[in-house]
Write a structure and sequence with these properties.
Residues 775-823 are annotated as: Disordered. The protein is mainly β and 848 residues long. It contains seven helices and 57 strands. The strands form 14 sheets. A five-stranded mixed sheet has the order 6-7-8-9-13, with no helix packed on it. A four-stranded antiparallel sheet has the order 1-57-56-55. The termini are far apart.
Length: 848
Amino acid sequence: MVAHAEIRVVHRGGSKINFREPVITNDSRFLLCASGESVKVYSSSSEECVHDLQGHTDLVSGIARNPSNHLQVYSCSADGTVRLWDFTDGILIKTFIIGYPIYSIYVSEKHGGVVFVVVPMANDKSSELFQLVAVHLPRSGDQEVEARELSAVLCDVSPSPGAASFGREGEYVAAAKGLQLEVFFFKKQKPYRFFLKPGIKKGSKNAFTCVSCHPKEDCIATGHADGKIRLWRNFNQKKEYTYSTLHWHHGAVNTLQFTPEDEGNESKPLLYHSGTNLLSGGIESVLVQWRYTQENQKDFLPRLGAAITHIAVSPDGSLFCTSHSDNKITIIQSCVKVSAIIQGLVKSEGVRTDLMIDPRSKALVLNGKPGHLQFYSLHRDKQLYNLDIVQQEYINEEGLDQFEVVKAAFDAHGDWLATVEERRQKGSELEINLKLWAYDEQTQSFVLNTTVTAPHEDQITAMCFSPSPETTMLVTISFDGHFKAWLLADHSDTKEGASWSCDFVGGYHLLKPGCCCFSADGSLLAVGFQEVVTVWSPSSWELLTTLSQPPGAIRDLCFGRLSCSKYLLGTSTKNQLCCWNILTCSLEWSTPMDVSLLQADPLSENIAAFCSQSGCSDLFVFKPGEPRPLYSQRALCTGKVQHAIFAPRDQMLESCEEHAQWLNRSQLYFLTQHMDLMTFSTKTEEDRLLASSKRLMVDNSVAVTPFYLLLGKHRLQQQQQQQEALTNPMAERIQLPQGSIAIKELLYTPAHVLPSASFLCSMFVRSLLISSSSAREEKEPVEEEMESEEEDSEGEAELRDARQDLEGSAAWGPGEELGTPALTKAQERELRRVKHFDHSWLSSLLEC
């Protein structure tokens, strides 16, 4: 049982895009954000991911524009490197090896060839002391360069990128931590420190949370934990500094950002007055703009969905974007209008619904923002949509009990969705609602069909749909000691339509059920009542048999699939994995394993078991009828894996290795305790993804160049013709347009030897026109063909007459012999050819 090196555990989407402040390009067409170990480039207009810049081997901790080249960005990572990228083509230009874990990065136009990074004061990731250092980037033609020339700027700083900012185009840097604000002037090479008191008043919290410097003036804005904003001035004199206070946020100020300077163009909209506004955001989900010259005036952009964690502004001030705690980036135009939303996988504190696959869209479904289910595309790494389950406005306030989605399940065809929401208030009973949603073909979404208030007297622990095609049935189990079967009643003959009702209520010796599972064909239902497994017949609700096992409450149940459908597997709290044979009602085998999760592949006999051991999770993939596992992986990740799902593939892999064949039909995804979505990948699959990622991806927002208009279309036509020739060799080949010669001459000839542009333009235009001579030449061959056909028909008629004459002469008498024998068909054709041959050249020779 050894893990195979050909199968790797990799991140496959779902990474955080709100981890660090995003970066908007100079032309406002692209948005770059850190996403796990890569940098993603999004189109600000279409919201699509244009490039995925991969190369870092650890978490990307910051992105910054290259001041000397607007088409390049720097990225830093905990792997100790700074990488320079061309984000338009998705190319890694250079890697600078720093040698220390990097937590944030800053650049300044006045410091060319230097980047500022925050690194630990000791070369250790567990260090709690950090410093801001200047890294001098060496000039070298090598792909990887060591940058060991570091100079300390500030010591004991916060690793958060929002806790430091450069002001007055790089003349000074301000850093905040705790109750201290430190300003370092590069010319003086001298820092100034300012302190705030902890706060004596009740509820006063003066600790710094973020800082932002004005781009042109000596002004520093700081945010605080009590919701206040302070504007610091005259800080170049330590004893004469002043600050004014702004207050609107009732919670901590998470982020601040000044808009860029704009030469005071007053004709632009309010939010477009760069340099005159300060943007702030916090837990209220409201973007607040403060007029710099008129601090009492402020405007709001409310209801952005979740707490604001970062604010970014484009260099020209025409575009803003806000990062939110629900892994979302909102793109805002300068006129306070939300133009686009880039939504990542929402990662709440816990996934109470488990992981599910929508049978229709093949999307991953789990808890999203409060009161919602999110449908997430695993292939596109993009959220498809949110389904509002609770249908109540969420109030972001601590200590307020609100409804939460705790369970969800799909039927086999994706026609029905069942959800359970609950709310427990202090001093009151648990409120539970069971909702059943029908899929609407017109809206392409789920519509609420039935709501059951208080379906059970206690918390619902599990539910599942029957896979039987004969009936639509849902089973729910609860701590109240009962399981209930809900049937769909069809009222198509009336105006009521379809509705759900309770068909059966079952129990077993007043024991509390903990889990349930249907067999693959829906003919059996297994319910675990503490230490006893009961098997029921859904058609008659007869208790067929009970299965006992070693001591310990049943934690999970799972039926085998396909050829292994006669097996029922279960896990217990006493670290036992048991397998029963349903046909003989006996224990087939058992093994001591602390299985935290049991997941069956719906398209094969394979079952995945995640086991917890020594603080890590191990994986075993096996078939219930075989003694040896197909695949095993030790120390898969730290902590327990409690959520996993097999997702069916769009295209079946053709893996020849036996150990990797369990990945051919489905792909196994799982969530770690840190809410990282992981999966398993083979070398064949990685090579295919790498080949597809190298293709040039053209976004709709990228302007089509004249070179593409001239040459790109012809190349596309050539590719299409080649494909048609391969698929249909007998197809006629379409000739390139006559202008292709002029195009090649225009594009491939050196510019210094080309004629004038006016001559080339006229030649190019003439090449696209159809001349009258060419039209006549096209008509002449047609006329010649018609004449030859007429002559052939005349020649055939003469031959028929001659043949008739010969036959008639033969009828005159047997004694008379003719000297001309009958001609074959080949001789007739040759005779016609000679007859119509032009002999005029012979007559000219004779005349001579």
